[in-house]
């Protein structure tokens, strides 16, 4: 799969709902969380896929340790 360059507006449609994959961005990198069970339905602990989670992940107990396990989809662009 080729990498995608998505704006924040484009990323919003990848919310894990209505058959869409679930993507989140962290530090400019977009990750696919579609098959991550805690992100089922595009939601995880009050957060919704399709957005930039750079700030939110700093408050998570796992911090950024989960990121290397996730498939990279592309980059978040302005």
Automatic annotation (TrEMBL):
InterPro entries: Cyt_B5-like_heme/steroid-bd (IPR001199), Cyt_B5-like_heme/steroid_sf (IPR036400). Residues 6-77 form the Cytochrome b5 heme-binding domain. It comes from the Bacteria. This is Cytochrome b5. SUPFAM superfamilies: Cytochrome b5-like heme/steroid binding domain. Residues 42-63 are annotated as: Disordered.
């Amino acid at each position: 799969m080729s990498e995608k360059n998505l704006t924040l507006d484009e990323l919003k449609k990848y919310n894990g709902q209505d058959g869409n994959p679930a993507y989140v961005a962290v530090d400019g990198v977009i990750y696919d969380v579609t098959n991550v069970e805690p992100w089922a339905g595009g939601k995880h602990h009050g957060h919704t896929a399709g957005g930039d989670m750079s700030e939110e992940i700093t408050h998570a107990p796992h911090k950024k340790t989960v990121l290397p396990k996730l498939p990279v989809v592309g980059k978040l662009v302005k």
